[in-house]
Every structure is written in structure tokens, then in C-alpha cells.
Amino acid sequence: MSDKNLKQRDQIPQEYKWNISAMYPDESKWEDDVAQCISRSENFKSFSGRLGDSSDILLEALTERDAIWQKLEHAFVYAAMKKDEDNRVDKYQAMNDKCSAAMAKVAAAMSFFTPELLSVPEEKIFKFISEEPDLSAYEFLLKAMLREKKHVLTASEENILAQMSEVTGATNDVFKMLNNADMTFGSVIDEDGDEVTLTHGNYITFMESHDRNLRKKAFTNMYEAYKKLNNTLATNYNYNVKTDVVSSRIRKYDSSLAAALNGGNIPLSVYHNLIKEVHEYLPVVHRYMSLRKKALGVDHLKMYDVYVPLVETPKKNISFEEAVEIMAEGLAPLGEEYIKQVRNGIKDGWIDVYENQGKTSGAYSFGAYDSMPYILLNYTNTLKDVFTIVHEMGHSMHSYYTRNSQPYTYGDHSIFTAEVASTVNESLLIKHLLATEKDENMRKYLLNYYIEEFRTTLFRQTMFAEFELLAHEEIEKGGVLTAGWLNDTYNKLNDMYFGPEMEDDGYIRYEWSRIPHFYRGFYVYQYATGYSAATAISEKILSEGSKARDNYIEFLKSGSSNYPVELLKIAGVDMASPKPVKMAMETFKSLVDELEKIL
Ligand SMILES: [Zn+2]
């Protein structure tokens, strides 16, 4: 749809727009809130030097700190979402800028809090907790903060590190500049015969094209560009990994992996088990690659044949109302309460459904602690959009349950647990569709869709995680990440993950150099663990019924009131054991078996 045909926001019926005015029925209150947060954070400085004086003072400070952030977050979320409604409106752009500045001011005014708290003797804090019942709500938070203590340096060392942090992020900035500003990828002739400039944005569309020449051209153009900068990108990544390693040593961690996993108190075994279990099931991926080769009818399978759907995308026209009914059927195993709340949420105005001029693209779930858990969509009546609603509704229901059960302190979710709630929903929906779909072509499409989710989330992200681990270990051993080392290591992993059917094209060895997530060390494994946990949970709910479901709802209520691995145990999965990943792999295997039968 061209922009000209796109509706203006005021042409869209109210029932399809989110009800954000519920956050500020009187918008003039917004300015007051922001100003009040700034002045309260100035007053907050009066706690400085007194946090260890008494349990009353500590409780008062913690409570005030939460209250300030809660109010400011409310203002921030409102401004951000108003801007997303129509990015062309100056007023909301200005409110966003104002809010960012206010957040920086508030953070600076309260920055003494953590270092000062960590300087109070631990026994004293535990004594405060035991004598003041209201402090018990903060017990986990305080203990989690104290756990970091041995990795916190002296005040003057911390000051030096804080000043150095302005330059330690340089490798990421250099990569972003190269990747988003300076690199160009030439042009390709698209399916309509038009010459189109190749970009990061349209690359994946071309990879899904049924025109093999187009796929090959886009792939070659893309990798030629990275190949030309191979040495520069290798040097940059080398220093990025070095920064992780040196920082972990300065903070007295055993390794860079231990440093990355420490914040969430994630056992190292979670990382290692993931890689080990995925290795065991690689033969199933190899079998899927053979099926792919057969279904596409190609003599030689290449990396540019990996993303094209094996079945033509079905042309379905699903209205939003129908999508809600499909969602309700798919999520029925989560119980009547859950579905009732989903419907109430939609009725109350959680969702902004359709695209309009100036609206932010994509989809998300967002909100403040004390607002509705809003959902932004750009719904276009496709089956993929139904999956998007179900995914975002998973996040929003997670927020809904958490915020109704937890205080503000534990009202959010870590990345490790957040994607579990959305993926459980997606996996329940696809299982429902596969169980009820009769049309053979549609079944093939759904199977392929589901298998691809596994391949791109579980296998691909684990391969990335393994690559990152090898790179960090190489530096820790005193090695250097040369272009040759990086290309060869990546190529070997790619061979191992895709198997003997995949032919080396001489290009995929450069793929490591175009992954932005590699500049955030040891992050991507959480996509794979989250996906495994979600698959295991949805299996449990379907096979064990109400007990497993009730446990899962308890997990949704738990917010960030404990470490992620502990929280997932409430839902019956122990990520420190290999079991959940194994369960997910078994699901993957059964899908490939079925696809093999019907292709
Ligand atoms: Zn998500």
C-alpha cells in the first residue's frame, strides 16, 4: 500500500485505537509530573550519607526512589506511545526529548544510591531487614545488589571506569557506522523486473523469493560488501571481544562468560548445556536440509536457498475480529480466566490495530507499571499478523499478571523470561492450527513455518552463541582474532550446523561480520533458551493440563521477584538441566518427521 492510500489517524474508528488517554485524561498533568520527579530527585539527595543510619531511613529511601521512577516511567511511556501514533507530530517529539533529559537528571541526582548502599556492611542490612517488616519486600533486591559487591571496585577505580565507559563502546559505534552509513550493497533486478537498491531492510524479502537468480544475486552482493572490509571488521570485532575480556578481569570474574551471566545469576551450565544438546540434534537439521533440497528441486543446495518457504504463502484474508477468535481458540489451553482477560483487554483499548500515516512500523507490547499493557500493531489481515497478535498478547498478559501481583520493584521482566511468555502463545497457536487444519497445502505451510522458527531461533542463535564463546576463549588464551581465524571458525561451525548437503559458496564465512548482536557479548543465547523453555512449557500445558497451566500462570505473576532460572522453575522447567532443550529438540524432530512424510 503506498503512503497516499494510507489513512490519516483520525480516519480510523476509535474501537481500533488504543486508549492511551486513560494514562493522562488531562494532558496538562504530564508537565507537572515530569517537573515533580525532577524536584523530588533533588530532594532525594538528602538521603546521601544516611542510608546506613536506620532501617526506617533505608525503607523511606527505597520507597521514594521507586515512587519517583514509577511516575517518571508513566510520563515517558505516554510520550513515547503518543509519538508512535504519528511520528510527524512535533509536540510529542518535544515531550520525548524533555522526558529523556529529565531521566538523565533524575538518574544523576540518585546515582549515589547504589555505591553508598554497597558500602554499608552486609550484616547491618540483614539486621535492618529483620527488624523492619516492610523492608522484606525489598529483600531480594537488596540481596541481588549485595551479590555484585565483590565485583565493585574502590570509589576512585569506579570513577575511572565510569569515565572510560565513554570510549569502551567505540567498537560498536564503528560497526554501526560502517554497517548503516558507509556500506553499500549495489542493486538487484526484483521479481517485477525493476532495478532495486539492495538494503538490510529488503535483503530478507529477496532471500524468501522463489526466483533463485534473485536470491543468488542479493546474497552475493551482500557478502561481497563484507568481504571487502574483512580485515577492518575483524580488527574491530577483535577489540570488541578484548573489551569484554579485559573488563571481566578488572572486575575479578573468572571469565567473560561468567561476567555476562552474573547479573541474572545464570549458571554457566545453562550456556554449555544449550550448545551440547543442540549438537546432538544437528543430524535432524541435516535431514531437514535434504528435504529442502528435494522440495526446491535443486542439484546443489546453497546458503541462499535456506530462507525461501517450501510452500507458497497462502493468500488468506483474516479480519481483526476473526484473528481474535483464532487467538481465543489457540490459547484455550491457558484457561477461561486468561481468555476472558484477553477479551476484556481488547475491549478496554489495549490494542492499536491498523496502520496510519506517520505511525511507527512493526509491533510491540509496552506500558507503564500502572497503565494498561498496550500493544501496537500494523495489522494487514495475514496469517503472519495473527501470530504477531498472539506473540504480543503473550507479553501483555505477562505484564498484566505481574503488575497485578508484584510491587513496582519487581514489576518488569528480564530478557531471559520475557520471550518465554510470547513464545508459549505462539507455540500453542501453531499446535492448535496443525491439529485442526485439514488442507494439505496449508499443513505443509504451517509445518515449514514452525520448523523455520526452530531453525532460526534455536539452531541459528545457538550457533551464534557457540561462535561468541570460541572467540572470547581465544582472546582469553592470549590469541588474536584475525580475519583468517574468524572466517575459518565461522565456516567450520556453519558446515557443522547445516551438514553435508550444504555446499560451501565461499561467502558464508563472512557472516559473523554482519551480525550486530555480536557487539553485545553473550546476549543471543537467551533467544535459544527462551524458545526452549517456551516449547517445553507449552508441551507440559497440553499434556499435563490444569496443574501445568496453573503453574505457568503463577510464573506469569512472578515478574522479576527472583532470578530468571528460579522463576522458570515455577513453570516446571529447570534451565540448569538439559531437559527443556531436549524436549524442544524432540518437538523439532517430530515436525521434521512429519514434513518428510507429506512432502
Ligand atoms: Zn517478543
Could you provide a short overview of the structure?
It is built from 24 helices and 5 strands. It is mainly alpha-helical. Among the domains are: 22-168, Oligopeptidase f, N-terminal domain (Butyryl-CoA Dehydrogenase, subunit A, domain 3); 229-312 and 414-599, Neurolysin, domain 3 (Orthogonal Bundle).
Bound small-molecule species = zinc ion
Q: What distance lies between the first and last C-alpha atoms, to the nearest angstrom?
A: 34 Å
| Rg over CA atoms | 25 Å
Oligomeric nature of the chains: single chain
Instruction: Determine the CATH topology of the domain at 229-312 and 414-599.
Output: Neurolysin, domain 3
- Approximately what portion of the residues adopt beta-strand conformation? under 5%
Whole-number average pLDDT? 94
Looking at the structure, what is the overall shape?
globular
The CATH homologous superfamily of the domain at 229-312 and 414-599 corresponds to Oligoendopeptidase f, C-terminal domain
Could you say which structural class the secondary elements and strand pairing correspond to? mainly alpha
What spatial order of strands do you see in the largest sheet? 3-5-4
Compute the number of helices. Answer: 24
Largest sheet: 3 strands, mixed
Order of helices and strands: HHHHHHHHEEHHHHHHHHEEEHHHHHHHH
Stretches where pLDDT is under 50 for at least 5 consecutive residues are none
